[in-house]
């Protein structure tokens, strides 16, 4: 079983961010609340009030089933709100100024106030990040360890194919994945929480609780007991025991549901393969991740092509229809690279954002 979570920025028709997630939730559900069911999807708030999350009402074995759930929910959202908002995928809103947004100030206020006191939420690493999260179910403790350890070795390659945040506050930075660049610094006051993004290899599942406890010890020192929950772990890959899944958090949000599902299919296929020839030591995985954050697919082409061929060899017919998109990204560049090609050619970021908005609305890809 697989589940996904999709984070989109809320914008007006000029694609200026609107911190109104609470008002939208009230408009649709009748009251301000953290999350609610809406047809085929669950809709929930995020820390930032200009971001809203969609997830399928139920996980599925079928990638196309997940795609249909989310896209149907997205279309219903546009209809219910009379098309007054434009939603954007991407790992960051590329023109957002931090003064234009704020954080959730309703239920769970104590949690966010504590985060703000300890880490200062008023930075891009908190207020301007949008991730695609993929949740992979595990069956036993042994299965959990196996999937966790395999997924951690794949993280650099997932960054390479999904980076979609090359522009911050309207400026090209020289990095393909600015979301991760900012994200891995957002809790530097307690480095145990995020570290270098990459989680440690597990020998047994109980090792994970020991890692969490190290974070909790440091949080208690700062009178932040309210944050001592499993969700506080901000590594690129975490375990959610309450959901019985491994949650992959390293991917930038993509331009459309189909593109998100292509990433999910890629992950699904790679998990089936035994004996992948990829680095397993922390130092190399961290180094490769940093290369992907900086350069995207460019310096990892050979490795990505090898992984793609192996993934395709074990893919179902359904998955092959999605893997074509991954092949295109490997050959022609990830979304950041595509955006930069367009920007360098046209110097018109508003045109690019309008194209990205249409991609999400119509479930198309950007090339």
TrEMBL record:
It comes from the Archaea. Keywords: Ligase. GO terms for biological process: modified amino acid biosynthetic process. GO terms for molecular function: glutamate-cysteine ligase activity. It holds the Pfam family GCS2. This is Gamma-glutamyl:cysteine ligase YbdK (ATP-grasp superfamily). It comes from Methanococcus maripaludis. Transmembrane segments: none annotated. Signal peptide: none annotated. The keyword Transport does not apply.
């Amino acid at each position: 079983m697989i589940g996904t979570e999709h984070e989109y920025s809320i914008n007006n028709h000029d694609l200026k961010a609107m911190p109104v997630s609470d008002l939208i939730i009230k408009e649709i559900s009748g009251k301000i609340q953290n999350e609610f069911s809406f047809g085929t999807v669950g809709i929930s708030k995020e820390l930032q009030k200009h971001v809203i999350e969609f997830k399928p009402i139920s996980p599925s074995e079928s990638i196309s089933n997940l795609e249909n759930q989310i896209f149907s929910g997205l279309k219903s959202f546009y209809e219910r709100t009379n098309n007054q908002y434009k939603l954007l995928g991407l790992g960051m809103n590329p023109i957002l100024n931090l003064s234009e947004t704020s954080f959730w100030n309703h239920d769970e206020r104590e949690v966010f106030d504590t985060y703000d006191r300890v880490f200062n939420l008023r930075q891009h690493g908190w207020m301007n990040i949008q991730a695609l999260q993929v949740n992979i179910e595990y069956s036993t403790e042994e299965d959990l360890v196996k999937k966790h350890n395999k997924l951690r070795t794949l993280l650099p390659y997932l960054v390479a194919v999904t980076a979609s945040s090359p522009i911050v506050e309207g400026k090209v930075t020289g990095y393909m994945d600015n979301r991760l660049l900012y994200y891995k610094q957002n809790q530097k006051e307690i480095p145990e929480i995020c570290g270098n993004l990459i989680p440690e290899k597990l020998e047994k599942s109980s090792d994970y609780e020991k890692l969490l406890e190290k974070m909790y010890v440091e949080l208690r020192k700062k009178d932040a007991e309210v944050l001592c929950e499993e969700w506080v772990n901000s590594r690129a890959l975490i375990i959610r025991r309450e959901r019985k899944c491994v949650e992959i958090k390293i991917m930038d949000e993509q331009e459309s549901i189909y593109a998100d599902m292509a990433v999910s299919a890629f992950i699904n296929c790679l998990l089936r393969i035994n004996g992948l020839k990829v680095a397993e030591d922390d130092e190399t995985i961290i180094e490769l991740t940093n290369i992907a954050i900086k350069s995207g697919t460019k310096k990892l082409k050979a490795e990505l092509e090898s992984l793609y061929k192996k993934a395709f060899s074990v893919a179902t017919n359904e998955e092959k229809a999605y893997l074509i998109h991954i092949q295109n990204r490997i050959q022609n560049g990830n979304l950041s690279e595509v955006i930069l090609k367009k920007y360098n050619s046209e110097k018109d970021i508003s045109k690019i954002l309008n194209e990205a908005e249409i991609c999400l609305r119509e479930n198309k890809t950007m090339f």
